[in-house]
Amino acid sequence: MVRVQFKMTYKYTLDRTSKKFSCPSCGKKTLVCYIEVETSRYLESTLGRCDRESKCAYHKSPSGNIPITSSVLQKIEEPSCHDDTVIGSYGRNYSNNNFVQYLRQYFCTTDIEGVIREYFIGTTTYWKGATIFWQVDHQMNVCAGKVMLYNGKNGKRVKKPRVFINWMHKVLQIDDFVLQQCLFGIHNLCDYKKGDTICIVESEKTAIIMSLFYPSYLWLATGSKTNLKLSVLKPLKDYKIIVYPDKSEYKSWNIKVEAFQKMGYTIICSDFLEDFKACEGADLADVMI
After folding, report:
1. Contact 244, 213 (CB under 8 A)
2. Are 145 and 137 in contact (CB under 8 A)?
3. 51-97 pLDDT tens trace
4. Domains of the chain: which residue ranges?
5. Contact 190/138 with Cβ under 8 angstroms?
6. Where is the Zinc beta-ribbon finger putative domain (predicted)?
7. How far, in Å, CA of 247 to CA of 278, rounded?
8. What pTM, to 2 d.p., does this model score?
9. pLDDT tens-place string over residues 202-238
């Protein structure tokens, strides 16, 4: 499919390579500098954006950043979906699932089995003890499967010697898979009526734990702090939405929420964790546990 995409290209843009510079604000080597598009020349070292969005948020853009090109014809790829049977193929071996074993420390077997069915929690041997969080949209399309590895004792993500996150289409070596994410858990929307309250958090783990503590609400997850987008919220237009950002993320999420409110969404951003005495980056699950 070919569509006209109105995409502006500007004189200056943030460097897309992995090269980083010292941030003028926090001093860390996390500054992505601006470059001149036509020459790929770096601008002065103070012009850029710090990658530490939550802890620093430094961003200084160059003046005179005028557009140099306009619309282009671009091929738009249709999003891919997994086959419906893939979820059942990984719906076993929960004794070898670190995340499920972590839940067993705090919740009864019946409730855990219920939440496994409700959220399609899967297990894979891709990494020993790894969990699959299937993203199934409100029309029951299997959009994606995120593979994550947790510590079975403390419930924290394993980040050493590296971060253990992957996607099932990569695990299954589906080379032409076009990923388009949805909110984790939104397939359960069919059990709720228009006007009901829907709660959104960042991590899949938090959505599952909060659904165990407060099962009367539908708990969904964006999967990342940047994935609170209009495209994933569209199925929730007729519902009441409360978003619960992680500690220190209230400001960035509330800016988005205010924009959604102007579009007619009944949505608010909770500052509960900002007032709560929790460490930076903490979420509702950390507080409840």
Report:
1. no
2. no
3. 887 778 899 999 888 877 655 555 667 899 999 999 999 999 999 99
4. 2-75, 86-171, 190-288
5. yes
6. 10-63
7. 7
8. 0.77
9. 999 999 999 999 999 999 999 999 999 999 999 999 9
- The amino acid occupying position 163 is V
Other residues' Cβ atoms within 10 Å of the Cβ of residue 33? 20
Q: What percent of the chain has pLDDT over 70?
A: 94
- Cα 50 to chain centroid distance, Å, stands at 20
Give the fold, CATH level 3, of 190-288: Dna Topoisomerase Vi A Subunit; Chain: A, domain 2 (3.40.1360)
The pairing of strands 72-75 and 2-5 is: antiparallel
Q: Rounded to 10 degrees, what is the CA torsion of 138, 236, 248, 158?
A: 0
Closest of 258, 233, 228, 232 to residue 244, by C-alpha: 228
Q: Give the span between the Cα atoms of 85 and 81, in whole angstroms.
A: 11
Angle 109-119/204-213 helices, nearest 10 degrees?
Answer: 130
Instruction: Could you list the beta-strand ranges (E) of the chain.
Output: 2-5, 9-10, 12-14, 31-36, 48-50, 59-60, 67-69, 72-75, 121-124, 130-136, 142-148, 165-167, 197-201, 218-221, 240-243, 266-269
| Cα distance between residue 217 and residue 198, in whole Å | 6
The answer to whether the beta carbons of residues 247 and 282 sit under 8 Å apart is: yes
CA distance 43 to 34: 6
Would you call 75 helix, strand, or coil by DSSP?
strand
pLDDT in tens, 167-210: 999 999 999 999 999 999 999 999 999 999 999 999 999 999 99
Residues listed for the chain: 289
At 239-275, the pLDDT tens digits run: 999 999 999 899 999 999 999 999 999 999 999 998 7
**Do 265 and 233 form a contact (C-beta atoms < 8 A)?**
yes
